[in-house]
Amino acid sequence: MVPDLSSIPLSPGIYIFKDEKEKVLYVGKAKILRNRVRSYFHKSSGLDMRKSALVKEVKNLTYIVTGNELEAFVLEANLIKQYKPRFNVVLRDDKNYPYLKLTVNEEWPRLEVVRRIRKDGALYFGPYVPAGSMWETLAFIRRNFLIRDCKYPLDKPMRPCIQHQMGRCRAPCAGHISSADYLKLIEEIRLFLSGEKKYLMAALEKRMGRLSEEMKYEEAAKIRDRIRAIEKVWESQKVVSPEMGDLDVLGFYRADSGVSFQVFFIRSGIMVGSKDYFLKNAADVHDKELMYTFLTQLYAKEIIPPPEIITPLLPEGVRSLEKWLSHRREGKIKITSPGKGKKKELIEMASDNARFLYGSRRELRAEELLDDLHDRLHLKKKTDDIGAFDVSTLSGDEAVGSFVYWSGGEFRKDRYRKLKIRTVRGVDDYSMMAEIVERIIDNLGGNLPGLVIVDGGKGHLETVKKVIRKKMGSFSRLPELAALAKDPDRLYLTTADEPVDLEDRKPSSLLLKSIRDEAHRFAIGYHRTLREKAMLQSPLVKIQGIGKKRRLELLRVFGSIKGIKDATIDEIAGLKGFNRKVAENLYHELRRG
Questions:
Q1: Containing H/E element for 407?
Q2: 8 A C-beta contact, residue 189 and residue 141
Q3: Model's pTM, two decimal places?
Q4: pLDDT value, residue 1
């Protein structure tokens, strides 16, 4: 059915194709909406196979007019990320990459890890992909520059915490370092993270010489040790070429319907990270469109684009893309495709990596694995997705449940679910499993994958069967069920008396176990977070009469729980907002148990 095109305006904007159930099939942008949409339905357009298949399913369309093409760029990227339409080439990577944030917008700046960029006046360094090098850098800075890592406002003097006692902080909270000297440390950190080795070393050597002249030999020795540590770290870094500054290098390789991309993130001439990506169902998408799709979806994430991006070929709409990226960066960006020199070599290196990674991607074997599972498990229908449930508990305390989802060779974290057990007290694994399955079915609107695995044995399988029967009218399709038991690994089915052996190391067996393990990891991680939160909860919270304001005042003055315990009743009673009765109660409560 050809939608009515006459009412579509001759304006820039976004168009959205939908099927008969109003499910989004495709999102696109256009300088002139009517012309672009009409091109899909004109007989002489010569559409490729992908777009021809799309048109056959289109039953409805909507559009959003934007003020200009730049707004259309932003909206298109956001809608593709939201809906993940089937006919768009979608970058399935839901992670926001970590940055180091130096809070120079604060009076006493800190260095912290963040995954979201804010326009707050702070400095951001990264992205660090993978994150291991970032944690090493953070640990090095805290070990050698001794700046604070707390979030206290420091508007009033307070006792130094344990970090100062361990020699890891200069204690600006207690006035042990002046603001001027502290900001010198912050400037040194900025230079270090910016890769400005020459200026940092010159500043440190000058200060070391001055301290020696003033016969402050102990302080001079600390600066000397810091210089040596910094030189050692810089020697170990992957220096590409200092004069290159900040740039991202893209390489790609395609075969059949799949495409792999490799990105090198280079900052101040140093490679701070690299990341590979995989796009599927791209057989009918030409290279320039692929490059455009990849760049828009990559930088729609929480990534600050560098001033230069180099690629094997220029994407379609390169000038509009540069304009959008410059808007995101709040500074000029250029996209180039160098034909020679060091930058050309970097692109070739990235493309070689992409080709190597293409051959090792699990996605390429997904169809084969699913065929094998269909035959081995005697499934009624071949499935293209698998889900798994797990329960994590410790003596019934903070029991939680998890659900993970696998499709097309990858875990889809947008479909993950986690929850606390509400109705079960004590250790009752079957009842807990029943609760999480029922609640997650409701949360997903009955949209379960074709095969559902539960962590456990026959009893767990029977429990889930009862829940499925109870919720029979809720499903868009009825899932097939299995329970994966340990020691040895074996799979119980509803259609067979004997379990299927999973200790054979077949790829399909390893797939099922990896999905089970991912559900377990996800549940354990959530469980651990809740337990740590409970453990870190201050004992002051449970003491009658000690509200938030009094807790903050106690910590401000005495610095820690130990400091409060060591205080006398008179010292506590003399605090703002306290009296002797409250102080006596607090004193005795902290000494119980």
A1: strand 397-407
A2: yes
A3: 0.56
A4: 52
